[in-house]
Amino acid sequence: MADETTNETQSLKTRNSVLEVLRVATRLGLTSFGGPIAHLGYFREEYVHRRKWLDEKTYADLVALCQFLPGPASSQVGIAIGMIRAGFLGALASWIGFTFPSALFLTLFAYLLQGVKVEELGWIHGLLVVSVAVVAQAVWGMARNLAPDRPRATIAILAAMVAVTWQTALGQVLIMIVAGFIGWWILPKRSVPESLSIRISLSRKAALFSLGLFFVLLLLLPLMRKISSAQWVAMFDSFYRTGSLVFGGGHVVLPLLQAEVVPNGWMSSDQFLAGYAAAQAVPGPLFTFAAYLGTVINGWPGALLATEAIFLSSFLLIFGTLPFWGWIRRQPKFQAALSGINAAVVGILLAALYDPVWTKTIHTPSDFSLALIAFGLLMIWKLPPWVVVVCSAIGGAVFSHF
């Protein structure tokens, strides 16, 4: 009898913890504007300072892990915190709360544009133009942080040259692999200070299974795509592979997704860039851009499939690496390889700034002027991206009458 009472109490406590995680994550999903770096600041304030679910060192270690892994860093940090707080259901609740608001908005936005010729609407063209300023700001900030010296800047420039002439998903993956090896061999090896180990209720056997499943899907889905004509298989492969191979998160998803959905004929470049710009105006992770793309391809079922596929690798990688992260982060060669990959990411995004972002949007002096205004609002006046997106949409509508 006492055991039953204890089990019921434990079950109630777990359920309450899951609901608490969902409630807090949903509020963050509704209010976290500003991109991955800003999200990490919101998380630190909420989870470390206000709720004290974990301490500063543990949070710093989680951030380091998620920046080391491919995928959306802020979402992965949220998944890991949910896992630590309330197990697997807590991880799922954290992801749903943080992701659902922006995914829903972008799905509705895609439905709004159905049957509309994107290039004929002034305010939509304003959204296309603002993507130039947003990506330029991302390239500038990432270059300063990830390619600040001659060796890494050289890797970034070479990566941009290759990426702009070899615009395929495979090309981008190979660029990052080669850059990782170059970093492993030539970049300085720096020791990493000790930190607290992250405690998580997940066995190493389960973690290895999760890592194994990550790689199995990465290898098996392209093969399934070759032998199956089903669109959902092709979509799942494209979005899962993108989520698995995007180092740097955030805006870096742009060139990889563009290479997957536009050449396949699933949508036009204008439709793609309109959704990308809209994604800047909503809170939450930029990876919910996948919900917009999925809706354009196949309605709300496509939105669900694309969103689940692009985030699935984040769950598998977080579950697979948390138990081993204390050892991995102390290996200087891993850090050097990651530095090389991050430098290549800057180059890939620089290539995307030219094509498709610039070549598909800047056609007239008015377009160039609007892009400059948006860039100035972001870089000089430091306005939030969503404010700049709204201003650019208004500017596009106004300029269309001249």
Automatic annotation (TrEMBL):
MF term (GO), any: chromate transmembrane transporter activity
One cellular component (GO) term of this entry: plasma membrane
Signal peptide: none
Keyword set includes NADP: no
Species annotation: Lihuaxuella thermophila
Family: Belongs to the chromate ion transporter (CHR) (TC 2.A.51) family.
Key words of the record: Cell membrane, Membrane, Transmembrane, Transmembrane helix
Topology in the lipid bilayer: Multi-pass membrane protein
Main subcellular location: membrane
Places the protein is found: Cell membrane
Transmembrane feature ranges: 88-111, 123-143, 155-186, 206-227, 277-297, 309-328, 334-358, 370-399
Lineage: Bacteria, Bacillati, Bacillota, Bacilli, Bacillales
Keyword hit for Transmembrane: yes
Protein name: Chromate transporter
